[in-house]
C-alpha cells in the first residue's frame, strides 16, 4: 500500500508533466476527495497508508485532471462565500470574484431594509438572480440574510434558461436549507410571464468574447458554453438584460451585474447608449479589477 506522501508525489509529477496547474494544490485536493477527508488532514499525516480502493479513486481523478477537467467537477464540490456547492457540467463553476456580487447585494439589501423595514404582512423586497447557474449568488445571499434575520423581509427569485442549471441550483438550495425561500423559474433572462417591479436585479451572465473562448484555461472547455460565451463583444447577453430593466426594475431599485475585468469602458458605453440618464458605478473585486456594474434608474423614474 502506498502512503499519502507517495501518492501525492506520484500525482504531482503526473499533473506537472501534463502541464496542469496548480499541480500541488490539485493533487492534494484530489487525494483528500479520494480519502473523503479534508486537505489539512492529509497534509498533517503524510505517513498514513492509503487503501487500494482510495488509491484507485485518486488515480482516476488524476487521469481526469490530466485530460483538463476542472478539479471542482472531479470533486463535485466548490467552495463559494464560505459554503460548499455541488457542481457538475450542468452549470458554470462559481468563481471567487463573484463573491463581490454577493457582498454588494447584501449591502444593498441591508441599506434598503434599514431605511424601510418590511412589515411581516406587507410587500417584501423583491430580488431576482438572473442566470442562476449552480445557484451560488442567490443561495449565498439567502444564507447571509438568514443569519442576519432578514430572510423573511425579502422575496427571492432565480431564473435560468437552462433547466439543467435550475435542477442543480435547486439541489444546492435544498443542501443549504433555503429551498423554501427561493422560487426557481426557467426563463430567458427576466421572466415575461408576470409583470414585476424588481427591487434588486443580480446577474452573473456570460461575458466572454466568442473569439476569446479558445484562450480560456483548458478547464473552461468542460463548462457549458452557454454560461460563458457572451457573443462577439462579450456583452450581447448583458445588453439584452439592460433593455429589459426600464420595464422591470423599480424606480428605487438597482441592478448589480458582473462584468469581465477588461470590460469597464465598453460596459459603461453600453449603459450610456441603452439606458440614458441611469447612474452607472463600477465596483472592483478583491484583485482590484472592475467587476460589478451598479445601475440605478434616473431619480424620480417610476417607469
Ligand atoms: N469569470 C469567468 C471567466 O473568466 C467568466 C464568467 C462569466 O462569463 N460570467 O472564466
What can you see in these coordinates?
The chain has 10 helices and 9 strands. Helix 8 links the parallel strand 4 and strand 5. Helix 1 runs parallel beside helix 4 (52-66). By secondary structure, it is an alpha/beta fold. The protein folds into 2 domains: 4-67; 96-296, Rossmann fold. It is globular and about 70 Å long. The chain starts with a helix and ends in a 7-residue tail after the last strand. The longest helix is centred in the middle third of the chain and has 17 residues, at 99-115. Bound molecules: glutamine. The site of glutamine (GLN) has 9 residues, from loops.
Brief digest:
The protein is of the alpha/beta class and 303 residues long. It contains ten helices and nine strands. The strands form two sheets. It has a seven-stranded mixed sheet, with helices on both faces. The chain has a two-stranded antiparallel ribbon with strand order 1-2.
Architecture blueprint of SSEs:
Layout lengths: L3 H14 L5 H12 L4 H6 L7 H15 L4 H5 L1 E4 L2 E4 L12 H17 L9 E6 L5 H12 L6 E7 L2 H13 L6 E5 L11 E6 L32 H13 E10 L5 H11 L4 E6 L5 E7 L7
Parallel strand pairs: 3-4, 3-6, 4-5, 6-7
Antiparallel strand pairs: 1-2, 7-9, 8-9
Helix pairs in contact: 1-2, 1-4, 2-4, 6-7
The structure holds glutamine.
Glutamine (GLN) binds next to loops.
Amino acid at each position: 500500500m502506498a502512503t499519502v506522501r507517495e501518492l501525492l508525489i506520484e500525482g504531482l509529477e503526473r499533473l506537472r508533466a501534463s502541464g496542469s496547474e496548480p499541480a500541488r494544490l490539485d493533487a492534494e485536493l484530489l487525494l483528500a476527495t479520494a480519502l473523503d477527508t479534508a486537505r489539512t488532514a492529509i497534509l498533517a499525516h503524510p505517513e498514513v497508508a492509503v487503501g487500494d480502493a482510495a488509491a484507485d479513486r485518486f488515480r482516476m481523478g488524476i487521469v481526469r485532471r490530466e485530460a483538463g477537467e476542472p478539479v471542482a467537477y472531479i470533486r463535485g464540490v466548490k467552495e463559494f462565500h464560505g459554503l460548499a456547492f455541488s457542481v457538475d457540467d450542468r452549470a458554470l463553476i462559481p468563481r471567487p470574484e463573484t463573491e463581490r456580487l454577493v457582498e454588494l447585494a447584501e449591502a444593498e439589501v441591508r441599506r434598503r431594509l434599514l431605511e424601510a423595514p418590511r412589515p411581516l404582512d406587507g410587500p417584501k423586497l423583491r430580488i431576482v438572480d438572473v442566470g442562476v447557474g449552480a445557484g451560488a449568488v442567490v443561495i449565498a445571499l439567502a444564507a447571509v440574510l438568514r443569519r442576519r434575520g432578514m430572510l423573511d423581509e425579502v422575496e427571492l427569485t432565480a431564473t435560468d434558461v437552462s433547466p439543467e442549471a435550475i435542477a442543480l441550483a435547486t439541489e444546492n438550495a435544498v443542501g443549504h436549507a433555503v429551498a423554501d425561500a427561493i422560487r426557481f423559474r426557467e426563463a430567458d433572462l427576466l421572466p415575461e410571464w408576470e409583470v414585476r417591479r424588481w427591487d434588486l436585479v443580480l446577474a452573473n451572465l456570460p461575458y466572454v468574447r466568442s473569439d476569446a473562448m479558445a484562450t480560456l484555461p483548458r478547464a473552461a472547455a468542460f463548462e457549458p458554453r452557454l454560461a460563458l460565451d457572451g457573443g462577439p463583444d462579450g456583452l450581447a447577453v448583458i445588453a439584452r438584460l439592460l433593455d429589459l430593466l426600464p420595464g422591470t426594475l423599480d424606480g428605487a431599485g438597482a441592478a448589480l451585474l458582473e462584468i469581465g475585468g477588461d470590460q469597464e469602458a465598453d460596459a459603461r458605453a453600453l449603459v450610456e447608449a441603452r439606458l440614458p440618464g441611469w447612474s452607472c458605478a463600477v465596483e472592483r473585486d478583491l484583485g482590484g479589477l472592475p467587476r460589478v456594474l451598479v445601475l440605478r434608474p434616473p431619480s424620480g423614474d417610476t417607469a
